[in-house]
Amino acid sequence: MFTRYLSGLSTASRMARKISFINYKGGVGKTSLIVNTAAALAKLGKRVLLFDFDTQSNASIWLLKLDRWNKINATGEGAIFSIFEPGRAQVKDMIIKDVVEGKTGEKLLPGLDLVPTTFNLVDLENEYNGDPKRPPYLVFYEQLAAVEANYDFILFDCPPNILRASQCGVFSSNEIYVPANPDALSLIGFTLLVEKLHKFHQLSASFRKSAMGLPAQVHGIIFNSIKSGVDIEVPKMRMQLRLNQFKTAKRAAPVAKIFDTQIRDAMVVRRAVALGLPVALVSAEATDAGPAGDNVISDYRKLAGEIIQQVPA
Ligand SMILES: Nc1ncnc2c1ncn2[C@@H]1O[C@H](COP(=O)(O)OP(=O)(O)O)[C@@H](O)[C@H]1O
Ligand SMILES: [Mg+2]
Questions:
Q1: Mutate to test the pocket of ligand 1, among 20, 25, 32, 35 (most ligand atoms within 8 A of CB)
Q2: I want to staple 276 with a disulfide (CB 3.0 to 4.6 A). Which of 65, 206, 257, 302 is the partner?
Q3: Model's pTM, two decimal places?
Q4: CA 281 – ligand 1 centroid, Å
Q5: What is d(CA 155, CA 222) in angstroms, rounded to the nearest whole number?
Q6: What is 12-309's CATH number, 3.40.50.300, 2.60.120.10, 1.20.1580.10, 3.20.70.20?
């Protein structure tokens, strides 16, 4: 009884793991990976909050479907940019609980919440003139604190850069995961990311408080969209060598690794976007992808399990 009370307490007070998915290369599958992994984590009973920090709004349109997203896009109300401009909105009021809905509004995936974006997030990079003493990432970080205790995982879908929107995710994260394809461009994207991360951490150091812990470094690389029969040993080895160099130079976390789980290339991943569902909720009859559909779902489930096991330190 007493033990149960204690363990209940520790669950309530444990901080969420905050992870940015980012690579300097676009189109590697960041959004597909984060949406489907978030869904897999929620299916495993974790409380997950996903932030869409990419002005292209792919994750938001995917999970809300076009009708619901259009309403937010029309006014900008409820989109993440409104915490900066006009600056009255609060993250805590912007969370769309159990975001995935069926045709009649029924909740299909309890535990997966979203803070969406619309196209207006691009203004954060150009027109926005905030107080230089309070950069956007600090404003965001302070607001995030109000909701953190409600989640096991807080995930940030970032564009392929570390400009202001991405900085919000990166500054608040403890871990960075890098989605990659088995090609030279992904390796270049990873290398560039680590350089830019270092610069951003130097730039933002004076805004960090000791309670925040260390600035986020790369903790994992996830190979995505792997075609069957394609041998990825060589690109994987090159990635591992680069990762080892960064670890030696203390530019990547000591525990950083290439995840054992890789996500296969499957038609159902592309179809899921059009259906407005994570692949785990696309029923077998709705796909023409056959058994690969089931298999890729188990890839995401395995990856979610591996992320849960990964020691954040
Ligand atoms: N495992 C996969 N199998 C097949 N297609 C995929 C897979 N992962 C991503 N894709 C496709 O690759 C394209 C780019 O993916 P996306 O997640 O939008 O990348 P990013 O967010 O990095 O730009 C999309 O068309 C998406 O459907
Ligand atoms: Mg994307």
A1: 32
A2: 65
A3: 0.94
A4: 17
A5: 15
A6: 3.40.50.300
